[in-house]
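Researcher: Please translate sequence to structure tokens.
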Amino acid sequence: MERTWEKEAARLREELARLLSTLKHNREKVPLDVLRPKYKKGYDALCASISRCASNYAKQITLQGIRIHRDCLDEAVSIINETIAESGILRQLAAAAFRHQDIAEFDTLAGALRERLLAELEPFYMRHLGLYITQECLEDPDAAPLLYCTASHCIWQDGKWSPLELYEAGSTCLQQKSA
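Model: Translation complete:
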């Protein structure tokens, strides 16, 4: 089953591709120096739609799955904004959309920005690691505590980060079944 964010990303990508195709078609048929003044209202509306859709799509792709607890939000937002500003990728995304009308290039750049953000956020997350002591740990001295990240409110389990609320909900279900 496709998750909601995947559906939204696919919808935004499809809409952006359609808008870029319209822009490309318009620019192929009418020179830009005629397009801007003669068809100003429609051209400006199309550009505004592209800008809005491209921004939403880039956010959907780059920030999907990044969890930040509200107590750490200011620090994380600062890292994210600094990374975006220093990367220069926003200009490249704009060029992919407005100069090249190339959705594949846009996808590649958004993916590169995501990878850069994840790399820059990794030390941030590492600074917020701790141990999560479960009831099992208290009852069995050989049971190891779980690794917990306060910045994301996730635990490391089975080789991946999982939201603490999902872990706790799963533990509650197991406790209820065994009782």
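Researcher: Any highlights?
Model: Residues 129-178 form one domain.
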